[in-house]
Write a structure and sequence with these properties.
68% helix; 146 residues; mainly alpha
């Protein structure tokens, strides 16, 4: 695995648990849902999302850049499903979303999908941008050689 993919994967592994907890807590605090109602389930959702993101991100980043059919942010967006399930179980109501979000992420009724790296964590911005630039440069160099 190249250095940019490695850095993205390592940074992701460090921040995903806090990201998941922050998303859950935000909705629980806003609706005054007690820890008793969701507390037992949070750790299992954090572990599930962490494992899912790590596995899918690693699998993606191990592929040759020309074989990648998705991108890292899409993996994070898909990983919000278990969080949504927990919030539904806790009795949280869907949030009001703008037209773009409703069209782009129809199943994301709680507005959890990250639009950019900073929505996950500030420390994801630099490795995410570097990885994207590296991937684009790699593809362009390969096409020039053809």
């Amino acid at each position: 695995m190249d250095q940019y993919s490695t850095r993205l994967l390592e940074t992701s592994a460090r921040v995903v648990p806090q990201w998941v907890e922050r998303l859950i807590q935000k909705h629980c605090d806003e609706l005054m849902i007690s820890d008793l109602k969701v507390g037992d389930h949070v750790s299992s959702v954090v572990a599930r999302v962490g494992n899912e993101v790590h596995t899918k991100l690693r699998d993606l980043l191990l592929l040759d850049v020309l074989e990648q059919r998705t991108n890292p942010l899409a993996i994070f967006r898909q990983a919000t499903r278990p969080i949504s399930d927990l919030l539904k179980t806790a009795g949280c109501a869907p949030v009001v979303r703008d037209e773009f979000d409703e069209r782009s992420f129809p199943d994301d009724i709680f507005g959890l999908s990250p639009a950019t790296w900073v929505d996950i964590d500030e420390t994801m911005v630099e490795p995410g941008i570097e990885w994207g630039a590296w991937k684009a440069a790699t593809i362009m160099m390969r096409k020039k050689k053809q």
